């Protein structure tokens, strides 16, 4: 078995989960489920980033302790991931004592192995609480942070621990050049190489005034106890998770999944920290794009946002997952619109896969008393199924999730065409028994393939389809071998009540 340790970004605990969070988690879950299907020993890590001034301020505004505040937010995120069937193995929270101890240990490892990498420096500048960062003059517009025009910038002077990031410029460039797969997609890799060409500045590793965080393990020379800077607290979660009780994760991770806005942290600061600590680097960092809101409802009035719960309720969690994966490229930006969502749901799921399952299983029920016939020969549809399965594997291996979803659709279209061309009802009427068996057997094999291939995208509907087909119970039996060569002879099928019911006309 191949170990496959996959992580998502940990989410900042100052608000509720939104569409951007959901897109990342659904994509990563699709990858994790696909790797499990292929027989890998998968460990899927997610979690919450719970420290920082914004959290402390939000808690104070509500009159609760920061811990009570993040406990509640973490509960809401986990409930959302349950609802979307996100198959995480571990959910790390940066306020857990074990993570905090791990952060301190990582910093001590850097002190021990690379003693010059931390040094003290006095610093003063304009600090944005929204960004949790000092802002350069170019980032300040009309005296405000360009990203947070409603917040007041604060003039801050402090003596901090700094991390000598500049020292790792050549190391990072060599690593990225020697391992083209380290940063994907290509556009992000080029961005990081561009950044390295401009030269790296050292970064702050501790904060003097931030109370809500992990204590930096060493005081400054004037005896001040400081707090670990947010990124030195958050990034190590991927490593500290491998040391928590009950985990089976082994460092290094094979795959980090993050948003394109935080690639610099994951492709520059994080690998430099690991190298400084003498730890191996992750296999690859995948940076996905953003989901923009499009369509009529969002353009009618400015500031309308998407209610994640409403979007999931529209056609159910599986349809929502499918739509995101089918519509939005995993390597760049895309749009969510209610119109496209409904269009795809009706044409690809209700009239596509749902109708195919319904017609095929109804015919097996009517003509063969629910039992999938044994056949001596394959049909053209079997060749198409094998071809699509191969292409699907290639697409998913390359993390082209949208292409994987599209290929499923191609097989559905081919199967619906196959029904029209073979017209099993005519074969039944004319008593062409063997030809009818071949057609019905091919349709059952095609549905078994689709049940397996849809698993990473729509785990609930995939299991439902498998049960309707009369497949043996247990997820193990939906193994990849079924997609390669479905053995469905003698299975006893059930006609579906409506795998993907159509929406009512008035909505
Ligand atoms: Zn800001």
Q: From the coordinates shown, what is the CATH architecture of the largest domain?
A: 3-Layer(aba) Sandwich
The CATH homologous superfamily of the largest domain corresponds to HUPs
State the helix count: 19
What would the principal axes of the Cα set say about the shape?
elongated
**Which structural class do you get from the secondary structure elements?**
alpha/beta
Distance between the termini: 48 Å
CATH structural fold name of the largest domain: Rossmann fold
Which regions contain 5 or more consecutive residues with pLDDT less than 50? Answer: none
Radius of gyration: 26 Å
Are any ligands bound, and if so which?
Answer: zinc ion
The CATH class of the largest domain is Alpha Beta
The count of domains is: 2
Total beta-strand segments = 17
Beta-strand portion reads 5-15%
Average predicted confidence as pLDDT: 94
Helical amount among residues, as a percent range?
40-55%
Q: So what's the oligomer here?
A: single chain
Q: Main beta sheet: strand number and arrangement?
A: 7 strands, parallel
Description:
With 507 residues, the chain is an alpha/beta fold. It folds into two domains: 3-289, Rossmann fold; 337-484, Isoleucyl-tRNA Synthetase, Domain 1 (Orthogonal Bundle). It has helices at 19-37, 53-62, 66-83, 97-113, 169-178, 186-198, 230-234, 237-240, 263-277, 296-300, 308-315, 317-327, 338-368, 380-397, 401-422, 424-429, 433-453, 459-468, 480-484; strands at residues 3-8, 11-12, 41-49, 90-93, 118-128, 133-135, 140-141, 144-145, 154-163, 183-184, 203-204, 206-207, 227-228, 255-259, 284-288, 291-293, 334-336. Helix 11 packs across helix 12 and helix 12 (317-327) packs across helix 15.
